[in-house]
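Deliverable D5.2: sample structural annotation.
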Amino acid sequence: MFAFTLLTSYVFAVDLNVRIFSSSQLKVISITPLSGKYIIYNKTTKIVDLYKNNSVELSIKDGKISILKQNENLGSYDSLYFSADGFINTFTLKSIDPDIKERIYDDGIKLYVENNFFKVINKVEIEHYIAGVVESEGGIKKNLEFLKLQAIISRTYAICNIRKHLKEDEYNLCDNTHCQLYRGRSSKSMIMMATSQTAGDIIIDISNKPISAAFHSNCGGQTMNSEDIWAISTTYLKSVKDTFCLKQSQAKWVKKISKKEWLTYLLSKYNYNIEDSDTLKRVTNFTQNNREVYFDNNTKIPLKTIRQDWKFRSAFFSIENQGDTLLFKGRGYGHGVGLCQEGAMRMIDLGWTLKKIIKYYYKDVSIINIAELKPK
């Protein structure tokens, strides 16, 4: 019932509230409309109209937001809302801090004070958001079909996680990888075309719920079950063999580590008896022909933990003993759950349809437009 309510509510409420600059500390900023007109409100009280290329400077003083427009002080407020009042509305947000890059966004913006810094929320139409995500996630140089695939996946994620931050805050998603990377509006015509051509399309499971559409760069030849990485079992995130990514750029990696450093790690973190000859042989000669969950079944050390500790590209690796040095020979890049991006790109080159690709990586799913869902 919750998922159905979530989906049907989307049909009538197409805006998302996305926290932007969530990793930055903003104290003094300027906002400039690039197109359209904005009306600045404090709650329901109108403060001023803001037109194209007219800027306002915002700063925090005594816990409130002070507005300066063309050297005129317009007062101090606990919150502000820049309401988009045009057919196309875009704005730029620039920090006084030169290390924080200026960004351009679509639609509206809300501002609050939190711990004496700005908390900034982009009230954005979902398809504008999806285009921004696809570009931010590295979709600039991809072909149209792959961009359409990425748009469907990103939209599915947004709908599936639309309440992710609502329990603690007043926004749906943040702009970092905790949710989806979102660095502003897309300026690429092909990305906007891909978003438009798939508008409203999402992936649902056998219960008509939007899936958690996990993806990664390269699986190394085999994807993982969701429960093997996140301890959450699903009907659709199941391990599959994938030969399509094996000759792609992220298919293999190598790293050399001194045997002493490796054994010290195992001793200090897991209390391995490295003086035992059988143990020593086992931890310096390791092979994964197929994806494993644990490095050592006796001690149940998760391979994902080793990957995190050593910053490996993946947890799909084998170890070759070369005397004083160990050669880690890895496969793939990323967590390995869900859709393999490089595999999917190769499938597209071979003429696979988006539907066939999605059903290959996500089991027992359907693609549906949100508008097709009907209340029970």
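Annotation notes: Residues 200-246+336-372 form one domain. Residues 1-13 have pLDDT under 50 and may be disordered.
The annotation will be released with the project's public dataset once the embargo ends.
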